[in-house]
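ARCHIVE CARD
Drawer: 12
Card no.: 0347
Subject: one protein chain, sequence and derived structure
Cross-reference: see card 0346
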Amino acid sequence: MAKKPNSPKRKTRSIPRKEFDARMQAILDAVIDGLITIDQHGIIEVYNQGAVRIFGYDASEVLGKNVSLLMPEPYRSQHDDYIIKYTEGSPSKVVGTTRNLTALRKDGSEFPIRLGVQKARWNGETRFTAVIHDLTEELAFERQLQQSQRLEVIGTLAGGIAHDFNNLLFAIEGYAMLIKKHLNPNSLVMENMDNLFLASKRGKDLVQQIQNISRQEQDDFHDSDIVPMVNEALKMLRVMLPSTIEFRQYFDRISYVVWGSPIQIHQIVMNLCTNAAHAMMQTGGVLNVRLETVSLVNSKAQQQGLTPGKYVRLLVQDTGGGIPEEVQKNIFKAFFTTKPQGKGSGMGLSIVHNIVRRHNGAINFDSQIEVGTTFEVLLPLSHSQYEEESSYQSAENAEDTHLLLVDDEEAILSLLSQYLIEEGFQVTSTSDSREALRLFEQNPHRFDLVVTDQTMPNLYGDQLAVQLLQLRPELPIVLATGFSQRVTKAQAKALGIKAYLMKPFSRDQLVSTVFSLLQR
């Protein structure tokens, strides 16, 4: 039998201590978290680059020093006593466990950490190795998430309140309008009724603000006049800012209609005006807001990355100290801020920039030290004309027109019926959306137009509309809502709904909308 050759022995070499230590240090420095080893007296012997990033000390500044240097009170005072008790045999509450504590950076700031400690024997002595994970960003994210969840709950609640309040205002204002028709124009009762309307208008403004805050559909784009948004933002800022800041505004026309989200456009105005005010907070100055129309031809439009056409130009000017040149290149970057810690997130201008681009617009700025800063926002004007409440004439055949009204609020249903009956229409009304569907199914050609509320039990307004349109695709439907996160104006249009009215709407708005749809 042949003899099996001996396997060659693997050569090994002894690694010099200096090379071994360098390798180990390289491995330790590759660890993202902080890694610190101390002896039984609390003296730091190992300190990796992760610890350098977390605590701010270089290794040369801490090696050979007591680890309590990295601890705030009361941990610092308790640390040495804890090590002594442990080496004397007392059970450990830290070794072998992970816990959240507070640590101390070189700059004196305290911050949250997750600490894990293990012990080892080395050259006959006890060592403790700690792994430190900085929790600052994680806890900040958790707080933001919790805040976002709280705001979402508040927004949902506010939206529901706004919806119910809108219905109350609708009924109050509508019945007050009917009462006014029978009053002496010069009577005290008429004067009191006018004051009631003023109070109702303030209520509607308040509900609108609640809706703007709580509405979740960020992509609810439609024709919107930018003037009320600017006026509302300036009104809020005048209350918040010191009297040393003077407000000036100039509009070259009474309305500027853009296709966009009112919430997001309002956010543009608030962010730019707030930043301008902040630049003048210490010295005072002038906050100037201008709206004007401009036409961009091919060359100017291309420079801005825009298509040629008509735009509304929003200018927000301050007389503050200006923006330093080294800051200007970063001004639209997310999380970039020159404000002190806790005073700004660095997201304001980044958000504005994204919103403007989402609206197919452009944003520019010019700043001079000790002179001030001007931000320019260009938003394309809507192709459609701004729709004001138009006058209308009763149709000659109104008495031959049959309307179906659906609203689960009996007071509102009665009010709408009176509005339309006074115009000569035949009206069938019901507070039950399923009953409305049953009436329509019996004779789909009995009704010439349907006005339905959106938020109702059994069937939502949009669900009812879809089923009615399956029976009669050309049927004109008006969807009325006080607040709806379920269906936006654009979504309603996509379903085939011909008109979308936000409560509380006026008698003229309703009647004008009905006549307009019937005349098509």
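Annotation on reverse: The chain has 16 helices and 17 strands. Residues 136-180 form the longest helix (45 residues).
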